Amino acid sequence: MSIGMQKKALTREIQTSKKRQWESLCRDVDTDVWEEGYKIALRRIKDDAKPVLLCRDKTEAVLEELFPQHKALDWNSCLSQIEKSSQQRRNTARNNQASGKIRTKGSARSDEPTPKQGRVP
Hints:
mainly alpha
């Protein structure tokens, strides 16, 4: 047997062995998620996910961006502002309605035909 044929046979054996091992690992994970298959997969993931170390200034900048510091909200003042603005809107709507600027539902001007009358050509 030549070197090339031996190399090809070895490569084929390695591929079939890897395939068998992968299928075995998949079966293990399917039967018992928390056993060896899980541990192997987690070990692989942990090896790939090494933490990135930043200098102190960059770390502080990132933390400040993610978790900005601000004063605590005074909810009572927020509620009073909301109540004031809603009261102003109600007053404006009443004033507009009283002055005839806004028509209420169902009120039509005298020069406009009502839906029952229809338009005359």
